[in-house]
Amino acid sequence: MRILLAPMEGVVDAQMRAVLTQIGGYHRCVTEFVRVTEQVIPNHVFRRFSPELENGGTTPSGTPVYVQLLGGNAKFMAINAARVAKLEPPGIDINFGCPSKTVNNSDGGSVLLREPQRVGEIIRAVRDAVDPSIPVTVKIRLGFSNSDLLDEVVQNVIDGGANELAIHARTKEDRYKPPAYWSVVKSVSDKISLPVIINGEIWSADDAINALEQSGCQDLMLGRGAMAFPDLAADIQSRVASGVYQVMPWQEVLTLVLDYLRRSENKHPMFVSNRAKQWLVFLRMHYPEATPIFHAIKRFKLASDVFAVLEASL
To answer: pTM (2 decimals)?
Structure first.
């Protein structure tokens, strides 16, 4: 079983990948999406989304990071895939799952699931543009409004030459509302040889085991669950191996939060306060100790004020 860290836009950046993968349990990460329009993207943009390209395409702990592209123009997806391939990423991922209205209105993400043939054309264009040694993987949802076109989309993913397929077990219209429909994925995973990775609503080791059983998948992808429970991947790996895992105590988690924020504080003035609040909201789901800290900083804007509260809480 492999566990992948999901490409959560505005959440899982390079610094977060570094922090989470140092805990262990992950086999791969995927960057936030690089938006492809009708233009050639400069190399510095790819490196901004994936600083790991300067380190052999891996996090400091050695976890491979695939670069994700999002767009509806097959020609420019291919051109930019060829450009990023020259930077030697471990792999290239294509996003057909983003439910954002802004992204969908700009011909990207899950809106393309309405047109299975275009999905295949984009994948084929990217696959043909890069060396066969570079894996091309794909992330989709069950569909846009429903899963009626799922089989057709998956067949086009296969015909396009993708190496693997991750399925977020909800439609675009479901967004992130529970539940995730893991069992729907089984109709796909049971009849194709392409590796299928299950994603969506995996918050615990029990969820992971249920998702694997219901979907028929061998591998899984963690998103928000990894933010709420930073060592979830390690816990799942231990549980599947019938081992006993000692869950990370709160003080150690808080140290991780500080580590992440210190790595990132030079991004822009509001970054520390915004990301600290964001992560604490997730952590409240698993650690009650996060709640009073969140309330203590929720009106703060200055990084120095946030750091003072977090450091005093250690």
So the answer is: 0.96
